[in-house]
Fold:
Amino acid sequence: MENKDQKKNKIPYRMARIAFPKAKYGVFLAISIILLILLILYKDLIL
Structure:
């Protein structure tokens, strides 16, 4: 049982050195990219 828990919680070797950003920043980035693309596509209707 203990051996299973150690394998489950262990971070992969190559991913251990990478600092991941917080999830909320990814959500804000995705929303801003979508809004920017929609603004570019529909700028004639807006202006």
